[in-house]
Design brief:
Layout: H1 2-28, H2 35-38, H3 43-64, E1 65-71, H4 76-89, E2 92-97, E3 101-106, H5 109-114, E4 121-125, E5 130-136, H6 137-150
Antiparallel strand pairs: 1-5, 2-3, 3-4, 4-5
């Protein structure tokens, strides 16, 4: 269900973004305000673009969101406060927490909107010092690198 909601969200995101660009072009006078003159094929071209947006939106949640593990030297219970401090430095605040998982949300409405309100990072912990991060690909990769740099085991 989460996948479907994300796909629908991204379809509307791409459609609104395209509409804003076309609206800006009409507003500045670069093109006429008639769909038949803006696009070769008129409304049929708009339908083709909508199908393209639907195809990309159907695939994007699969490649845009990942789960990745980060190795730490200490278990979660020992490094919890320092971990939360690291997330605060990266503009994430603790949303909820239980024994095995913690969820963080991005602070700041502009950042949240730019992520289509898909800014939640879920951190699953294990006793052996491995944390599993789930969320938007670019954020998870950045956070994994930061976690491994800060909590790297001594070699």
């Amino acid at each position: 269900m989460k996948y479907l909601v994300r796909a629908i969200k991204y379809f509307f995101y791409f459609s609104i973004l395209c509409s804003l660009i076309i609206g800006a072009l009409v507003f500045i006078g670069a093109v006429e305000g008639n769909i038949d003159t803006i696009f070769r094929g008129g409304w049929m071209a708009v339908l083709k673009m909508a199908l393209l947006f639907a195809g990309v939106a159907a695939i994007y949640p699969k490649i845009g969101f990942i789960t990745r593990d980060a190795v730490t030297a200490k278990p979660w219970k020992e490094s919890r406060e320092e971990f939360i401090s690291l997330m605060k430095e990266r503009n994430y605040e603790l949303e909820s927490e239980n024994d095995q998982t913690a969820t963080f949300r991005y602070r700041g409405m502009a950042g949240r909107i730019s992520r289509m309100l898909e800014d939640r990072i879920t951190v699953s912990t294990s006793a052996d010092g491995i944390v599993l991060l789930e969320g938007l690909r670019k954020d998870v990769l950045r956070l994994c690198m930061a976690i491994e740099n800060r909590f790297r085991p001594e070699e």
